[in-house]
Amino acid sequence: xxxxxxxxxxxxxxTALAQLDRVAAKLNLEADVHERLRLPRRALVVSIxxxxxxxxxxxxxxxxxxxxxVLGPTKGGLRYDKDVSLGEVTALAMLMSWKCALMGLPxxxxxxxxxxxxxxxxxxxxxxxxxxxxxxIILLIGPDLDIPAPDLGTDEQTMAWMMDTYSxxxxxxxxxxxxxxxxxxxxxxxRREATGRGIVYAxxxxxxxxxLELKGRKVVVQGFGNVGSVAARLLWREGAVITGVSxxxxxxxxxxxxxxxxxxxYIAESGGVSGFPGTVAVSNTDLLEQPCDVLIPAAVxxxxxxxxxxxxxxxxxxxxxxxxxxxxxxxxxxxxxVTVIPDILANAGGVIVSYxxxxxxxxxxxWRESEITSRLQEVMTRAFNRVWALGQKEGTxxxxxxxxxxxxxxxxxxxxxxLYP
Length: 421
What we know:
Elements: H1 11-27, H2 31-37, E1 42-51, E2 57-66, E3 74-81, H3 86-102, E4 108-115, H4 123-136, E5 146-150, H5 156-170, H6 194-210, E6 218-222, H7 226-237, E7 241-247, E8 250-253, H8 260-270, E9 280-282, H9 284-287, E10 294-297, E11 316-318, H10 327-335, E12 339-341, H11 343-346, H12 349-363, H13 369-394, H14 398-417
């Protein structure tokens, strides 16, 4: 087995590796295939000098990691966060490999990141940072090589800057180099809402298998950003009761439910959820422990841990974020009989519609949003039902079943292609 590596300083990487090793043993993976899956195919670390608005130059650290290319070009988001590390990005690239394979997409996993607090930069500084980062990793990206997308701290504008920078080096417009772009430059209808919408589809299937209805279910959403807000709005429209939400500054709670439409209008004016009339202020941590039927952690990783999982009162946890539950927390929830819909299944809506966007861009033929929504629901439903059936057959939880499905598909790719030279 591979010795300790430079990636091991990241708790997220250690978690991803532990998941892989546990499932590899369950699948009886050959030692050579298992070994190839434990480390990324390539990892690039770059320095990004940016001339700031005050005239000084500041240097930021950036990463782009390709975990596996055996099933096709790599796919994965780009995040801007002050705590980004090589280990974290590598772990997320590994999870993307399993996620894409689980969904039947012709991609391997990738991830990128820049160690920066984007809220502390002006729009001009963010543009310069993005363009220089793109220039530094340009040898690794391309529509048939690696296709970035938005993630934590990045958005449609970030992707437009990346696309433009890449296109300028090619002497032509190349919309397929990134996904999650604005529609005017080749983005796809429905991409912005895709991850939140996919969460709703996954939850609907879980409740169906559990013999429960969505209407009237009390739901708590940690992280009222692009993913969490969309999921909350759609669930609220379907009759669920949204009792608590939070953002980076804290959370709010009302046992009788929130009017999501009014809340979104309040956020548009105030800039956050805090102070919304008729609610009690709670911390992000305390929000996880409020009474509810469904908990959607859609903020950042490592939120449900061994020390607080016992106090989670939900019967269903839907992982909107990447890695919101630690292995210790997962074990507690599993022992308590809580149904956890894992991240690689629950939040796959974004990469599914990114795939649709990529295909549309390559063909220069774009679909209606109703077509995209219908196809997204079809892919999510098929994947969920495969995972549920495998979990029932193997007598295991949904995370293990999802990982078994995703990892076995990537492993089969290695077996079929063999080893060069």
